[in-house]
Specification:
The protein is an alpha+beta fold and about 425 residues long. The chain has two domains: about 80 residues, Tyrosine recombinase, N-terminal domain (DNA polymerase, domain 1, Orthogonal Bundle); about 230 residues, no CATH class. It is about 45% helix and about 15% strand. The protein contains 14 helices and ten strands. A five-stranded antiparallel beta sheet has the order 6-1-3-2-10, sandwiched between helices. A three-stranded antiparallel beta sheet has the order 7-8-9. Strand 4 and strand 5 form a beta hairpin. Helix 1 packs across helix 4. The radius of gyration is 37 Å and the shape is flat.
Length: about 425
């Protein structure tokens, strides 16, 4: 591979690859040649696949195989000028750690309590309106959902405390349709008016039906207010269907329809560690509407991708792009917000007081828990009973027949006098 090796090295330098990348690519190319003991010019896609599968079965990591793929793509696509040999070689999927929703400092500032995961979903009738007026209506979604949580939890009949809430807006479903809803991380308890921490039930935070009704009322009240203030005005670019809904008579009918519906609020079982829940929500905040591994096939006519329960969805390329762009939020829109104890204005006051109270309650529980008394049960036992307690072997029972052993004192023996020693001859 002498001349080919030098040509590949010069190609890498001309394209200004880093020194480390050049060494890695050349090393991979040499491994490929040594595997078959043939020149790359005499081999093609069949040998490339065989080489990669051999290393995959041999336990090579995904990052190592990815480096082999990159090197061979360069070798065949650039140096040999045969890109067709590698165009169908797939890139290996490298597992990535879930990103955090917020930075490490904020995670460490969370209260050391359980957190519930509460999801607020807008009805399907509102989707077109929200898509057309995203900023005011998504702001209203944040406001109405978090106010419902805080107001209901502040009721002495429910919890009687101020919650800590972090909310994340999410706009897509698995099939890329516009589906706005809000994910909330909620503390399993709150700070009472007397600055005492009030724990919620182990598996129950607030009644979801009451929470859904309160959420519906607050959202529709704000919805009517925005309409009356002209913030949902029709423009020349407004789609006809949305313009019809924003007519006065149609708007009233829409509001009546929405009041008659049950709005969906879903509560998941609490996460014991707050950082685990925040990392889970990283799936919604640091990723786009669809990831590469869900796309199964792309050609000039269709895009096929995986949805829920291993089902697939097939779309025309233009429709796929349209759905994907539905989830680009307005410039400057903040999709992760904090409320209640986690609000910026309460970090150094109510949040700090809640942390002190939680730590104090934990310390009181530790002091109130009686230490187990250490009883010396061996002092009253003789050595036989102690041996039986420690080993399970009863020395008073015969191991062969199981009969009880009897002990008798040894009698004093009467020894006969020793005979004189024999004379030496």
């Amino acid at each position: 591979m002498g001349q080919l090796y030098e040509k590949m090295a010069s190609d890498l330098k001309l394209r200004r690859y880093s020194t480390r990348t050049q060494k890695s690519y050349l090393w991979c190319a040499r491994r490929f040649v040594r595997h078959f003991m043939r020149s790359p010019a005499e081999m093609g896609s069949k040998e490339i696949r065989e080489f990669l599968l051999c290393h995959h079965d041999g336990g090579a990591s995904a990052s190592t195989i990815k480096m082999y793929v990159a090197s061979l793509r360069f070798l065949y696509g650039v140096t040999l000028g045969r890109p067709a040999e590698v165009q169908n070689i797939p890139w290996p999927r490298v597992a990535q750690k879930l990103p955090a929703v917020i930075d490490r400092d904020h995670v460490q500032a969370l209260l050391p309590v359980r957190h519930f995961h509460v999801v607020f979903t807008l009805p399907a009738e509102l989707r077109e309106l929200v898509r057309e007026h995203e900023t005011p209506l998504l702001d209203l979604l944040f406001e109405s959902a978090t106010e419902s949580l805080l107001l209901l939890a502040r009721d002495p009949k429910r919890l009687g405390g101020l919650l800590g809430v972090t909310a994340v807006v999410h706009t897509w479903g698995r099939n890329l349709v516009f589906h706005p809803h809000l994910h909330c991380i909620v503390t399993a308890g709150g700070l009472g008016p007397d600055h005492a921490w009030v724990d919620s039930s182990e598996k129950y935070l607030l009644p979801v039906k009451v929470l859904g009704s309160l959420f519906r009322g607050k959202f529709l009240d704000g919805f009517a207010r925005l309409f009356n203030q002209g913030k949902l005005a029709v423009t020349p670019r407004t789609p006809p269907r949305v313009a019809e809904l924003l007519a006065s008579a149609a708007f009233g009918r829409l509001k009546d329809t929405l009041y008659d519906k049950d709005w969906v609020v879903f509560t998941k079982a609490p996460f014991k560690k707050p950082d685990a829940l925040f990392r889970y929500l990283g799936l919604y905040t640091h990723r786009v509407a669809i990831s590469n591994h869900r796309i199964l096939h792309v050609d000039g006519e269709h895009v096929v991708f995986r949805t829920r329960d291993n089902k697939t969805c097939q779309l025309l390329p233009v429709e796929f792009i349209r759905r994907f762009l539905l989830h680009v939020l307005p410039r400057g829109f903040v999709k992760v917000r904090h409320f209640g104890l986690y609000a910026a204005g309460n970090v150094n006051s109510k949040l700090a007081a809640a942390r002190i109270e939680i730590e104090q309650q934990a310390a009181d529980r530790d002091h109130a828990r009686p230490e187990p008394a250490i009883v010396d049960q061996t002092s009253a036992l003789d050595w036989r009973a102690l041996f039986r307690q420690l080993t399970g072997i009863d020395l008073a029972t015969c191991p062969d027949c199981g009969a009880k052993l009897e002990s008798e004192p040894l009698s004093r023996s009467t020894r006969a006098p020793r005979a004189p020693p024999l004379p030496l001859t």
